[in-house]
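Case study: Alcohol dehydrogenase (Cytochrome c).
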Amino acid sequence: MTVEYVDAGEAIDQGRLSGKVAGGEVAPPVVRDVGYERILNARSEPQNWLTYYGAYNGQRYSPLDQINTENVKRLGPAWVFQAGTTGLIAGASTYSFEAAPIVVDGVMFLAGWDGWVWALDAKTGVEIWRYKHAVPFDVSLCCGNVNRGVAVAAGKVFFVTANAHVLALDATTGKRVWDQTYGDVRAGESATVAPLIVKNKVIVGSSGGEFGVRGHLDAFDLETGEHQWRCYTVPKPGEPGSDTWPADGEAWARGGANCWITSTFDPETNLLYVGTGNPAPDFDGGVREGDNLYTDSIIAVDVDSGQIRWHHQCTPHDVWDYDSIGECILFESEGRKLLGHFDKNGYFFVLDRTDGALVQVTPFVDRITWGAITRDGKVTAKVYPDEEGVPVHFYPGPAGAKEWTHAAYSPRTELFYVPVQDVGATATRRRREFKESIPYWGAGVQVDIEDMTGSISAFDANGEEKWRWRNELPMCASVLVTGGDLVFAGEPSGEFNALDARTGELLWQFQCGSGHHSNPTTYMVDGRQYVAVPVGWGAWSEGFLPGMLGAGHGSALIVFALPETS
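Here is what the predicted structure looks like once written out:
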C-alpha cells in the first residue's frame, strides 16, 4: 500500500499564543552586559541571582538581609506564576519543577520541563516571553521529565533540552540564536543540567547513565555555539584509569559516570569541580569488575582544555546507585582552599580543592548499612546485591541520603545546611544483556514505603553536627541560606519553611499546595527582597518517596516578600 504524506507545515511558535500585545513581549536588554567578570563577582550585586548556585562557589548563599529572623513571620506571597503545562515527554507522571530562577536587574529567566523557558517581570510575575522547544515525546528518560535551569550571558539565555540539545536564545525576545546537539538520544542520552558560563564557554553535562552510555562534560563557545572540548568521564583502554575496568569487552563504553548537575568553579585554580554519576549497570557489578573510574567521583577539570587534573572517588565499584553528582561547595578554612561534598552514600567529604587530598570524611545520616568509610578514606562494602534473585536491603536507598538537591553554606555562620533523606531500599540482582536505549539497571529495586525520616541538618567543616530540624518525611529539595540568618527549605508535603540558621528553630511556614523538589533563590527589585521557589512535585519520586508517587504535581512559581510599606 502506498502512503502519501501531507506537508504539515511549520509548528506554531508558542510565543504567539501567550496573549501578549505588540511590544509587551520584549524584555529590557539586562543580560547584554552580563559576562565572565560580573559572574565572577556575582555576590557583589546581591540584588541579582546571576548563575545557578548564585555564585561560582556553589554556596547557595545570598548576603540579602531585608528578610531576617526578626521579621520573617510577616513574609507572604507577592505573586504567583502558573506554568500551566502538564508534562508530555515520557508520560505525564514524570515531570517536576526543579529549576533555579535566574534574576538580572528585575528580569527573571526560568526553565521548565517539556523544553519550556520563560522571561518574567521579577517584580510582578508578568510573563514577557516564552520559548518552547520541540522535544520528541518518546525520549528515553530514567528519572523524570525535568530541567534545572538556565544560564545567562552576552545577551543570551542558555539551556539544555531533554533530547540533548544546548541552545542559546536572545534574552530580549526569546528567539533562538543557535542550537547544538551534544548527545545521542537513540542510545539513551538526554540532558537536564543547568549550564554554567565560564569565560567564553557554556559548560554542560550529559544524562543517561541508567541506559549504559558513556558520560561526558562539554564546552561550547557562547557566541557561536562551536564545540570547544569534550571530557569523557570513563577512560577508554590505554587512558589513565582504564585499568579500573575489565580489560576485555566494552564495559567502559557503557560505563555511565554522567555529569548531570552543574559544576562549581575556582578562578584561581582554573578548575571546574564536577560530580559524576553511577556506573552501568547500576547494581550488577559482576559485569564491570574493578573500581570503575571516574564513576561516583569528584573530578577537577581544567576549564580551558577539558583535561581531568585530579579525582577523588567516593564509592569505588558502586553497586547501590550512589551517584556522586552532588554539588561541590567551595570554601576556605584555616588558610586552606577546600571543597565540601555531601554524597548519596551518606558521607560528608571535605577535600583540598587544589590537589584533591582528603581532609576529612564523616557520616551525615543516621542509618548507613551498605558499608563504611574510615577517617582516612578507606571504603569497605558490607551489604550489596551479589547473588542473582536474592533480595538485599540497605541504607541509604538508591536516591541517597541526599539526592541531587543542594546543600548550602553560610560564610556568616560557617555552617553547611543539608537536606537529608533517611530511607532504605531492597535490590534484587537481575542480570540483563546490554541493549542500546533499554534501561540497564541490573536489578529490581523497591524503595521503603515506611520507616523513613528526614531533616535539615547543620554541620561545620569538621563534620560535627550543630543542630537538626527533624521532619517525618525525607527532605527532597535544595536549601537556600541568606545574610538574614535564614535557611529556606521545602517539604514533600508542600510546606515552605524558614529556619533560624544558628539554631534550627522553625520561624515561618507556608503551604504551597504541592511538594518541593526545586532550587529556591532570592533577589531584590526596587529595594524589596523576594524569595522565589518553583513548586511542582514529581520526577523520580518512587526513588526517594514512593508513598507520595501519586501526590499532586503542581506547576507554579511562588514568590514571597515582606508587606510593602506605605
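For the exam, be able to explain this: The mean pLDDT is 94.
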